[in-house]
Amino acid sequence: MDQILKRVSFLSGSSMRFAVEKVRESGNNNILLTDRGNTFGYQDLVVDFRNIPIMQQTGVPVIMDITHSLQQPNQEKGVSGGNPEMIETIGKAAISVGADGIFIETHPDPDSAKSDGANMLQLSKLERLLIMLTELRKTINTFNY
Description:
Elements lengths: L2 E4 L9 H10 L5 E5 L2 E2 L5 E2 L4 H6 L5 E4 L5 E2 L8 E2 L4 H10 L4 E3 L2 E2 L13 E2 L3 H16 L4
Parallel strand pairs: 1-2, 2-5, 5-8, 9-10
Antiparallel strand pairs: 3-4, 6-7
């Protein structure tokens, strides 16, 4: 059974090695790490892309949670906001620094989603984004330093 560990927004990427060690000690080596941004003030998240290669030093795949990293928690309306217009940017950056995979929340009509609609990708935009990120990954993979 896979164990997906999400790095909480106030923890450093290097600190995730302790979580990985605990899961491995339990006998489970099917581990994925997920990054979803860092707390920035009270109402925003930002992505520190250094965390991707730092967490990969644990020897497990690192997934970038693109849509949750664009969430804006604790908004005055009582629901989280978001920046879905930045999904493509975060995706391209994550692939460029070597993320092993991506996580994207999507919905046919994000405005009517029960949760997290403010940071979701509209379903009609998913195929184009995945094609772009796949082509970017192929290009990045040609650079074998």
